[in-house]
Amino acid sequence: MRRISVFGSTGSIGVNTLDLVGRMPAQVVALTGGRNVTLLAEQARRHRAELAVTAHPECYAALRDALSGSGIAVAAGPEALLEAAERPADWVMSAIVGAAGLAPGFRALAQGRTLALANKESLVTAGPLLMAEARRHGATILPVDSEHSAIFQALRGEDMAQVERVIITASGGPFRGWSAERLAHVTAAEAVAHPNWAMGQRISIDSASMFNKALEVIETREFFGVDPARIEVLVHPQSIVHALVGFADGGLMAHLGPADMRHAIGFALHWPDRGHVPVERLDLARLSQLSFEAPDEARFPALRLARAVMAAGGLAGAAFNAAKEIALDHFIAGRIAFPAMAEVVEEVLARPSVAQGFTTAADSLDSVLAMDHLARRQAAEVIASRH
Ligand code: NAD
Ligand code: MG
């Protein structure tokens, strides 16, 4: 029986993962969540997990009480997350949101397992480190982001030397085509309303600002080793084509599928085989039309910033992600406007103390986390100085 752990099981990706895991024979090892202790305990009982971990020590008692008499082990705090990542398992889902997902995923790789990686922040902040750690331990990383799963599938059996370009699509989010004036007044509630995908709050807002696509461009570079000049972004409002790979002979392999993350999760779950996944089957005749347009980098500067981050290299990805996470916190709290998120990130990247770190390689967890902390402090300062 396959042993499976899910980090971030109470989130959008986590819930979809358990939906699929519940349909196959599996021993669930560890499930982890944040403050949603009721859901975490319910998942742990339903899937007969060995261990349930909340990231927050102050939630320990509530989780322990909710699982009393179940025989399921309970733990709390960041150290406990790392210990959970050391429990032997064959397949581990990394679906914590943000840079907080890096260390547990990294620790799981040391066990030489399959890591299904939804946490794109791991690759953005520490791509070279993560890929090297997987190689060192003979572990496999499988992409779970829909675009990256699509690229991975289009590349099966292909020669990377013949790849001319990789195109990832973006829906354009709820504000596609909006003027700069209108964007200045949007609220978090409006930004979270994604037209096609049901996702966690943070990635939904990142989709509206195109920061999600910016992270994904960097993720593409880090995971597939594609030169940044060969990575393109195409706005595709229907979210049916997830990515395309262009080859030396002019052919494009496109991946199409419904906007349901269970496809990409299921692909990673069944890999290297294909298995049945209960997503809606596309009726292309009913869809009738797929459209594409170029992204507007003037109104959505995140993509331009991602290009600068890739050109800078080193710890720039860690700084970019951390500054974005803080700017997003402040937008959600209503303290800065929607377009200010990109302005704050750009200012943080230009700060000398931060930019100095770009020459340092992202080759140790300590250096990545030090840059993460520095960029968070700088972002908070930049935001404070705007008021
Ligand atoms: P979510 O907010 O719905 O869930 C996040 C999970 O992480 C929850 O279980 C939460 O309890 C846990 N968590 C939050 N902060 C934590 C912390 N500091 N320490 C430990 N655990 C913490 O997020 P999501 O939408 O499921 O996204 C998860 C990851 O997958 C993100 O990296 C996101 O970019 C990526 N992703 C999501 C989707 C999607 O459709 N939701 C698609 C592609 C990629
Ligand atoms: Mg995606």
Structure description:
This protein is of the alpha/beta class and 387 residues long. The protein has 3 domains: 2-143, 3-Layer(aba) Sandwich (Rossmann fold); 146-258 and 281-298, no CATH class; 313-387, Rna Polymerase Sigma Factor, Chain: A (Orthogonal Bundle). The protein contains 18 helices and 11 strands. The protein has helices spanning 12-21, 37-46, 60-66, 78-86, 102-109, 120-137, 146-154, 180-183, 188-191, 201-209, 211-224, 262-270, 284-287, 302-312, 316-332, 340-350, 352-355, 365-385, and strands spanning 2-7, 26-33, 51-54, 73-76, 91-94, 114-117, 140-143, 163-170, 231-235, 241-247, 252-256. Helix 5 (102-109) links the parallel strand 5 and strand 6. The longest helix has 21 residues, at 365-385. The radius of gyration is 20 Å and the shape is globular. GO terms for molecular function: 1-deoxy-D-xylulose-5-phosphate reductoisomerase activity. Catalyzes the NADPH-dependent rearrangement and reduction of 1-deoxy-D-xylulose-5-phosphate (DXP) to 2-C-methyl-D-erythritol 4-phosphate (MEP). Its EC number is 1.1.1.267.
**Which term fits the overall shape?**
globular
CATH superfamily of the largest domain: NAD(P)-binding Rossmann-like Domain
Strand order of the largest sheet: 4-3-2-1-5-6-7
How many discrete domains? 3
Strand content: 15-25%
CATH class of the largest domain: Alpha Beta
End-to-end distance: 57 Å
Average per-residue pLDDT, rounded, comes to: 97
Estimated helix fraction: 40-55%
Instruction: Please tally the β strands and state the result.
Output: 11
* Rg computed from alpha carbons, rounded to a whole number of angstroms: 20 Å
What is the CATH architecture term of the largest domain?
3-Layer(aba) Sandwich
Structural class: alpha/beta
Tell me the number of helical segments per DSSP (H or I, 4 or more residues long).
18
What small molecules does the structure contain? nicotinamide-adenine-dinucleotide, magnesium ion
Largest sheet report: 7 strands, parallel
